[in-house]
Write a structure and sequence with these properties.
single chain; about 230 residues; alpha/beta; Rossmann fold; 9 helices; 9 strands; about 35% helix; transport; ATP binding; AAA+_ATPase
Length: about 230
C-alpha cells in the first residue's frame, strides 16, 4: 500500500493526501506543474518534504531494508549510462541489491528486449528505453510499482503490453500507481484516480465515482482542474 499523509513541499505541494491500495491500479493525474513529479520524488526518497509523510507498506523509503524488493519505479528522465549494455545495466542493479541474477533474463524477456540485451543503450529508441526502464522497475519482483508516464515513446504494441502489465500486476495483488497525461489510456487501466491541481488533491476515489456526471475522464479532468 502507498499512503500519502498531509505531504507538503513548499511551494509545490500543500498537504497532499491519498492512498493507493493493493490489487488496484491508481491513476495519478494533473496538469504540468501540478505537483505530480514532486509527489513521486518525495515518495521515493529523492527529496525531503517540508511536512507530512509518504509511506510504502507502512515505511518511509529510506527505512526500507530492501528497497527494490518493495517498490519498483520508473521516473521520467531517469535512465542508464548510454554506453552500457542493457544486460549489464540490469545485472549491476541486481548485484547491488542482492537480487538473483536469473531475474535479469526474466525481466528482459518480459520486456521484449532479449534480442537486444547486449546492445548499448545509446542505440535504443525511446520506446526501447522505456521498456528497459520498466524492466529495471520489475527486477526486484516488488509489491509496489510506481510508474511515471510508462507508455511514453511506445508504439501500439508496447502500449498494449504496458496496459496488460499494469492489469496483471494489480491482479497479482500489487499496488500500482501510474502518473500519466493520457486520459483515454488511464480510463482503460485505472481502478482508482487521484487528480492533483495547484499542489492539492482535488479528487480521489474509484474511476466511476470521479467521472460521475461527466461524459468522459477528460471532461471530468478539465472540470476538476479548472482548465
Amino acid at each position: 500500500m502507498i499512503e500519502i499523509r498531509d505531504l507538503s513541499k513548499r511551494p509545490a505541494l500543500d498537504r497532499v493526501g491519498f492512498t493507493a491500495r493493493p490489487g488496484r491500479v491508481t491513476g495519478f493525474l494533473g496538469p504540468n506543474g501540478a505537483g505530480k513529479s514532486t509527489t513521486l520524488r518525495l515518495l521515493l526518497g529523492l527529496d525531503r518534504p517540508s511536512g507530512g509523510t509518504a509511506l510504502l507498506n507502512g515505511r518511509r523509503y529510506r527505512d526500507l531494508r530492501h528497497p527494490l524488493r518493495t517498490v519498483g519505479a520508473l521516473l521520467d528522465g531517469a535512465g542508464p549510462v548510454p554506453e552500457r549494455r542493457a544486460v549489464d545495466h540490469l545485472t549491476w542493479i541486481a548485484q547491488s541489491n542482492r537480487i538473483p541474477r536469473r531475474r535479469v533474463g526474466e525481466v528482459l524477456d518480459l520486456a521484449g528486449l532479449t534480442a537486444v540485451a547486449r546492445t548499448r543503450v545509446r542505440r535504443y529508441s525511446l520506446g526501447m528505453g522505456q521498456r528497459l526502464g520498466i524492466a529495471a522497475a520489475l527486477l526486484g519482483d516488488p509489491a509496489i510499482l510506481v510508474l511515471d508516464e510508462p507508455v511514453n515513446g511506445l508504439d501500439p504494441d508496447g502500449i498494449r503490453w504496458v496496459r496488460e502489465l499494469l492489469r496483471d500486476s494489480a491482479a497479482a495483488g500489487r499496488t500500482v500507481l501510474v502518473s500519466s497525461h493520457l486520459m483515454a489510456e488511464t480510463a482503460e487501466t485505472a481502478d482508482d484516480l487521484v487528480v492533483i491541481a495547484r499542489g492539492r488533491v482535488v479528487a480521489a476515489g474509484p474511476l466511476a465515482e470521479v467521472t460521475a456526471g461527466h461524459r468522459s475522464l477528460e471532461a471530468a479532468f478539465f472540470a476538476l482542474t479548472g482548465r
